[in-house]
Amino acid sequence: MSCHFVYQKDGGAKFMRPIHNREEYLQLRDSERQPLVLQAVRKGSEEQKHQLVQFNYSCLPNDDGSLKGSKTASKSVGMDIDFKAPKDLSAQEQQAWLAKQMAGVPELVLSKRDELGLLMLERSATKGFHLVFRRHEDLSQEENLQWASELLGVKFDDKAKDITRVFFTTTADADELLFLDDELFDMTAANQTTPDPSLLILGQAKRQSRAKEGNSAEPNEQRKQYPTAYHGIPFEAIIHKYWEVNNKGFEPTEGDRDTLTFQLASDLRHICGKNFDWLDQVIPCYDGFPIEEKRQKIRNALASKYEGFPQRLRDTLNAFKEVEEFDETTPDPSSSGGELSLKRLPQGIKDSIAAAGPALAMPIVTAICPCIGALATGVKLDVHGQMRGLNLIAYITGEFASGKGSIDPVIGAWMSEVQALDDMYIQQEDEFRRKKNAAKNQKNQPEEPKLPVRYITFNTTVANLAERLANVEGKHAFSFTPEADIVAQKWKSSMSDFSVMLRQSYDGSRYDREARSAEAVNVHIKHLLWNVTMCGTPDALYRVVTNYTDGFQSRIALAQTPDNTYTPLGDKPDILSSRQAERIQQIAHLLPLMTGEVVLPKLEARGREWLERIRLESMMNDDRVKARERFRTCVTTQRMVCCIMLCKVCEQLIQKHGLVGAETQLKQHPDLWRNMLLKVQTPAMLDIYDVIADSLLDNALYFFRERIENAFRSRNYIGGNERRRQGKNDSIYERLDLDFSFDIALQHSVSVNGAGVSRNQVHQMLKNWRKQGLITQTGPAQYRKLLGSVS
Q1: I need a surface site. Which of 162, 209, 605, 788 has the fewest CB within 10 A?
Q2: Residue 245: burial class (beta carbons within 10 Å; 0-12, 13-18, 19+)
Q3: DSSP class of residue 622?
Q4: Taking a C-beta distance cutoff of 8 angstroms, is the pair 257, 286 a contact?
Q5: At what angle do helices 416-438 and 578-590 cross, to 10 degrees?
């Protein structure tokens, strides 16, 4: 940070003098001359502006104390926000326009002060505001200004983007100087090699608080940086909600600030621990409260007796939809039949579940993992020695009105960037069609564009879908339908094609489709990459999955919504908030920046442990269906957990560097995500594997066990026997006992084929069966079946 008073030496070059404390800073702003000059400037005498006190916040002076040409950035950034009224308005109208534009800015900036790292906010002398914030040391001056501009949604003065920019200040009055943090006066140069811009700090310097407590500290000691948010919610928002819940929305005043500050510190210590510096950082000074008196209340609170998690804080935290549970002694909310801990899930995943409600945790995770896998299209995971993309197919089943509709907006949030790009491509295609129709009688026809639309609708033909999949430039396509009956109806006559395409997409294998006519498009895809999420009722599931022995069913990640038949309607239905959507979109924005192959040995080991456990359970129960289902369930789960772990990596990067900084880190360090992914193989994250794998297996067996068993018993299923079903003789074979005679075979032949059957025909039938290895002759006119059936 830095704050330097700018002055001219002998009326010439500008020099800088450091300001070391609040008192000196306020004294310069509060001179007798300053308000008089400011008043004249605001009345139109802008030529007097240069008589105002000037400060620089973005750099340190040269060795001789001069400002010009300084190359040493400080740890703070000064930003100028100006509003320029339209020139066609009258002077009075311009003033009204300017007042309207400026009205909401202070509240906006202060509401984001933690995320921004705000150090100072003031009204400018004429038409806007000045603010100072902590520098993201991995970004340039202009990139820092752009980052803050995007965060606040206001434009910065692009003529004021140099670190030597000087700011003409106003007075020390509360309506002019809107916010000031003492950390501004820490004269430290920016360190470009050790950036940590996201852990924002409020309050006094750590060395000052230590000195008050009798501890020594070096003058240049850097303060320890504490989290500014709890479960993703800024402490500022928590404290604001705390007074709203516990004090009718009123912040402490001079009459009760002692008691209420002590109460607040006593409650917040349950999430900040016995950490004086952290509490000092997050608890503000209310209504002119001297900072040392506030600190004494914090010390008193830390010395008081602990009596369990306070109800006041519990009520405050539960008022936030984003966090479902805070009490460590209470079990986490979980999905139906699962133990999916929301506390262990990263940003984006947690927000998705909060948007639909904790009861839908497993269906939501199952639904969004194909989105995550499609966005992280460059990531390949080693599973059992084979590198594959995060290819996933999900089906969320549930009765009507069971909450499946809440999945739609969550999917939309994850895929919003892809959808926005696709909208542009579709507009180009529409423009091509208009041009083609206009030129249909002309000799030169416009060339049809091959555009990489990745968010592909199901409501199309096999040929169109294949063409779309061929044009995605080696990236994952994604399809979503809230009504699986769309698939069953549109693809009714080509469900075999649908099944084949999805099976090959799960494996990432080659897909070829030759067209019948020369005009049609031939499709040759080296690796078919297509992730899919479907929602529908159980009966729609059986219309989509019609074959239970071809492997399609085993490639689907199946989740079931809980039975809400008798569940009362909540007072506040779970909906996707703008904040949740923003946090999801932050993760979705970073996922495409991760590219490469990764081996996760701990995740692979957990998958093998699960496989062995299910194998032993299946053997003890002679459960062949369960034993076979476990193989692909293991692969699917490893891919899903990898998706969740990638979100954890994104969350860590955002917390440390901010969104813009995280993006920069991923671009500058291509292997960063891979190294971080290895470290997030924590026991808590690996426990998620068992929960998801057990849930997927249980649902697959619940919906498909009987159908799989019937399919394997069916005469239409071809197992290890090479014989193919040929006609009515198979029915005769099935009627026969294990040991039978020629006469019995003749009787059954007459029963099946009619009285016209001759003895020679039966002899020929038995001869064929012997050649095919279905029977053996045990004596004169006596036979034994070698197979229980011909199926």
Answers
A1: 788
A2: middle
A3: T
A4: yes
A5: 80
Helix (H) or strand (E) holding 733: helix 729-735
CA pair distance 722, 88, nearest whole angstrom: 88
Residue 5 CA to residue 23 CA, distance in Å, equals 13
Q: Which two tokens stand for residue 366?
A: 């199952």
**Amino acid identity, position 744:** I
Residue found by looking up tokens 């990432």 in the block: 508
Given a contact cutoff of 8 angstroms between Cβ atoms, the answer to whether 347 and 568 are in contact is no
Closest by CA position to 176, among listed 309, 377, 332, 35 = 35
pLDDT, mean of residues 7-18: 81
Closest CA to 190 of 255, 143, 251: 143
Token pair recorded at residue 639: 């891919």
Structure-token match 């542009």, residue found = 424
Residues 744 and 747: their CA atoms lie apart, in Å, by 5
| 748 vs 733: CA distance, rounded Å | 9
- Cα separation of 250 and 252, whole Å? 7
Sign of the C-alpha dihedral computed for residues 266, 269, 275 and 276 taken in this order: negative
**Greatest Cα pair distance in the chain:** 130
316, 349, 515, 592, 684 from 586: Cα distances, Å: 26, 12, 42, 11, 23
Residues written for the chain: 791
Contact 633, 697 (CB under 8 A): yes
Using only C-alpha atoms, what is the Rg of the chain? 35
| DSSP codes, 174-243 | TTTEEEE-GGGG---B--TTS---SS---SS-HHHHHHHTT----TTPPPPP--SEETTEEHHHHHHHHH
Between the CA of residue 42 and those of 4, 36, 134, 174, what are the distances in Å?
Answer: 24, 10, 30, 18
3-state secondary structure of 343: helix
Q: Which amino acid is at 294?
A: K
Interatomic CA distance for residues 347 and 322, integer angstroms: 10
Place of tokens 């400018």: 124
Find how far residue 723's CA is from the centre of its chain: 52
d(CA 73, CA 75): 7
By the 10 Å C-beta count (0-12 exposed, 13-18 middle, 19+ buried), 148 is classed as buried
Using one digit for the tens of pLDDT, what is the confidence trace for 665-697? 999 999 999 999 999 998 888 889 999 999 999
Structure tokens belonging to residue 249: 């929305």
Q: CA–CA separation, 292 vs 303, rounded Å?
A: 17
Share of the chain above pLDDT 90, in %: 27
Of 274 and 540, the one with more pLDDT: 540
Q: Write the DSSP assignment of 685-718 as a string of letters.
A: HHHHHHHHHHHHHHHHHHHHHHHHHHHHHSTT--
For residue range 117-176, list pLDDT tens digits in order. Answer: 899 999 988 888 999 999 887 788 888 898 888 888 888 877 778 898 999 999 888 888
The CA-based angle 155-158-160, given to 5 degrees, is: 115
